[in-house]
């Protein structure tokens, strides 16, 4: 799990082992991503013991979109109760390159080419259908290939808000299921629901109840025994931290960050598990799927940079730009940065950590756990594995390499 207390604890661990970590990191050329399979396995075990243990017959399908680094996927693929969730042809190919035999193919507006690849790998892939158009296309392709595929259907409810972009309205589920059941090469098995950026259980509990009520309705009752899985998605946040400021110029430094603390992973699992037992289990014995992404990949990767130039006591330039993380994320989001060459428990404030791109919006942060700053010092941003490596882009400069750590860093 990754919450604010863990960030503070992580910084203390890094500072306490500063000399040892600094020595280890000397072998890596900056800027770079450091893949930490040991931290990844800790996150997997956390999810398994704090979440899956509370919900019988449950499985986790890691959302590849949060970090698609191939060595990461290979680790996840070997884990008990874990599979992979791919939402494009690119991600499906990555998933198929692992040993996993549990792959979900999700995402809207799937193309004929994408569906053909999923059909070719029918023994390993379950297709989560997103629309009636996809259903008809899948029927035509499976008829042509004479291959039977396992499938689910994504739905949205009145509790999904902006997530109504995805899937069909739950009110149309019986009609969809009837159509899918009439197609000879489509084995319709499950229902998928997903929301994200949640810091509590309210949406999950409401959606579980809504699905349960619909499944018991007269229109769907004839099909209920054919439901083999319910997929409740992911979106579990244990904190949100955003900048509390208005920028008038590029040199404005935020005075504070405001934090919205979420709940521990086990506090998601227990209420969701109880809701499943109360609303779904009496009439439906099926598997329960989840699609964790951020909560698994966050700890799996660190970013290592070096101070390339110092313009003043307020402006520091690092040797990598925010094309490494894809966008100006750290202007608004809290991330601890530690000067591993000169670490300190006190934050060095009133500075701007710029990247080396030819744009003033290239910012890594506004403080650093550091005694002082000097050219050549190394800056470590721990636990930045979620939606950074995935978002990276070749803007102005190229992309750095990723290195696999061969022992636990901190």
What report would you give on this structure?
The relative contact order is 0.18. Helix 5 links the parallel strand 3 and strand 4. The strands form 4 sheets. Strands 1, 13, 14, 15, 17, 18, 20 and 21 form an 8-stranded mixed sheet that branches. An 8-stranded parallel beta barrel has the order 2-3-4-5-6-8-9-12, surrounded by 5 helices. It has 11 helices and 21 strands. 29% of the residues lie in helices and 22% in strands. It is elongated and about 70 Å long. The protein has 2 domains: 1-37 and 297-405, Beta Barrel (Lyase, Ornithine Decarboxylase, Chain A, domain 1); 52-249 and 261-291, Alanine racemase (TIM Barrel), CATH 3.20.20.10. The chain starts with a helix and ends in a 6-residue tail after the last strand. With 410 residues, it is of the alpha/beta class.
Summarize the structure.
By secondary structure, the chain is α/β, with parallel strands linked by helices.
Number of strands: 21
User: Helical segment tally?
Assistant: 11
What is the CATH architecture assignment of the largest domain? Answer: Alpha-Beta Barrel
Q: Quote the beta fraction.
A: 15-25%
Uncertain stretches: none
In helices, the fraction of residues equals 25-40%
Rg, Å, rounded: 23 Å
Distance between termini?
16 Å
Helix-and-strand structural type: alpha/beta
Q: Quick one: CATH superfamily of the largest domain?
A: Alanine racemase
Q: Given the C-alpha coordinates, what overall shape results?
A: elongated
What is the top-level CATH class of the largest domain? Answer: Alpha Beta
In CATH terms, what is the fold-level topology of the largest domain? TIM Barrel
The chain-level mean pLDDT equals 92
How would you sum up the major sheet?
8 strands, mixed
Domain module tally: 2
């Amino acid at each position: 799990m990754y919450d604010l207390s863990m960030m503070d604890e992580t910084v203390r661990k890094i500072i306490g082992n500063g000399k040892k970590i600094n020595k280890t990191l000397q072998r890596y050329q900056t800027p770079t991503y450091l893949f930490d399979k040991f931290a990844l396995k800790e996150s997997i075990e956390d999810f398994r013991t704090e979440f899956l243990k509370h919900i019988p017959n449950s499985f986790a399908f890691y959302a590849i979109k949060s970090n698609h680094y191939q060595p990461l996927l290979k680790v996840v693929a070997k884990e008990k109760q874990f599979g992979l969730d791919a939402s494009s042809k690119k991600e499906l190919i990555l998933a198929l390159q692992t040993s996993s035999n549990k792959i979900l193919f999700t995402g809207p507006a799937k193309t004929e080419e994408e569906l053909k690849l999923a059909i070719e790998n029918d023994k390993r892939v379950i297709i989560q259908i997103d629309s009636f158009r996809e259903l008809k296309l899948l029927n035509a392709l499976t008829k042509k290939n004479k291959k039977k595929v396992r499938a689910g259907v994504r739905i949205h409810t009145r509790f999904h808000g902006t997530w109504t972009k995805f899937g069909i309205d739950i009110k149309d589920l019986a009609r969809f299921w009837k159509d899918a059941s009439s197609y000879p090469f489509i084995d319709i098995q499950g229902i998928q629901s997903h929301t994200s950026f949640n810091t509590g259980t309210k949406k999950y509990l409401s959606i579980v109840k809504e699905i349960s009520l619909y499944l018991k309705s007269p229109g769907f009752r004839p099909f209920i025994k054919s439901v083999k899985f319910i997929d409740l998605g992911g979106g579990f946040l244990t904190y949100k931290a955003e900048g509390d400021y208005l920028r008038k110029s590029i040199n404005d430094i935020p005075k504070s960050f405001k934090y919205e603390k979420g709940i521990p992973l086990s506090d998601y699992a227990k209420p969701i598990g109880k809701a499943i037992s109360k609303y779904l289990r009496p009439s439906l014995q099926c598997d329960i799927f989840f699609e964790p992404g951020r909560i698994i990949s966050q700890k799996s990767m660190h970013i290592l940079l070096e101070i390339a130039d110092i313009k003043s006591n307020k402006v520091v330039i690092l040797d990598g730009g925010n094309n490494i993380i894809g966008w100006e994320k750290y202007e608004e989001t809290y991330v601890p940065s530690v000067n591993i060459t000169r670490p300190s428990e006190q934050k060095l404030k009133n500075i701007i950590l710029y990247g080396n791109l030819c744009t003033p919006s290239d910012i890594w942060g506004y403080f650093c756990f550091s005694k002082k700053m000097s050219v050549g010092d190394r800056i470590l941003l721990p636990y930045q594995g979620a939606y950074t490596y995935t978002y990276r882009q070749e803007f102005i400069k190229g992309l750095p390499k990723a290195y696999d750590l061969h022992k636990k860093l901190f």
